[in-house]
């Protein structure tokens, strides 16, 4: 079922017309003349038509039904008038926020994690929102959490390979994937998803300490690797400069000793204490 435009007209103009008709009919009322009853009936019917007046607020719509059949949606703002027999249901078209609860799922590597999301959505098709599901707000909440569970199980928490997309390291790609997953589930309910982002992401409490140690170890290894790369470059530069300027000639054994000493100095965590050799180098 798709949304269609419902019948309505300017409510102010309709009010003036029906009141004018009622006053004209009452002015023709004459108890002596038998036709006066007809004017009274017409006046009452004209006033009864005023029950077709309704108000439409900005970014809201009114879904019209007649004896169980959908006849259209009115989105024009202000005072409107339609057929009094139409049942008018108000539905908001404004942006809404939904923040899911923290749910526990397993990521792509099987690690238990806690994750939550914030979804910005609005009603795009009023007919589908009202008639395709019982409660579209509850439908959004349940399907958003289901999409979050499915999406989070497709990605790892941390990035282990160079090109691997992870929940923690690729927030933009993960948000787009989550938005697409939720939109596919909510399209049948006439809902448009404007934004979906992860609001909470952490390892589950039972493995949080172990994973923290793993992250710290990875950081230490990466830092050590960078320090060693820099130290090797500095040692290579020192030997090259000594050779170019012919400051001193070192045999292979002395070069190995110098390399060892420089690496100890450059890679040590604590400040090294120099030892002064007062004797001959040889």
UniProtKB/TrEMBL annotation:
Subcellular localization, as worded in the UniProt entry: Membrane
Cell cycle found in the keyword field: no
Gene3D superfamilies referenced in this protein's UniProt entry, alphabetically: Band 7 domain
Pfam families with a match to the protein in the record: Band_7 (PF01145)
Topology of this chain in the membrane: Single-pass membrane protein
TM region positions: 12-30, 36-56
Statement: the UniProt record of this protein carries the keyword Transmembrane: yes
The entry's keywords: Membrane, Transmembrane, Transmembrane helix
InterPro entries documented for this protein: Band_7, Band_7/SPFH_dom_sf
SUPFAM superfamilies, per the entry: Band 7/SPFH domain (SSF117892)
GO cellular component, one term: membrane
Cited PROSITE patterns: PROKAR_LIPOPROTEIN
Major localization class: membrane
Top-level taxonomic group: Bacteria
Record domain Band: where: 51-215
Name of the protein this chain belongs to: Band 7 domain-containing protein
Organism: Pseudoalteromonas phenolica
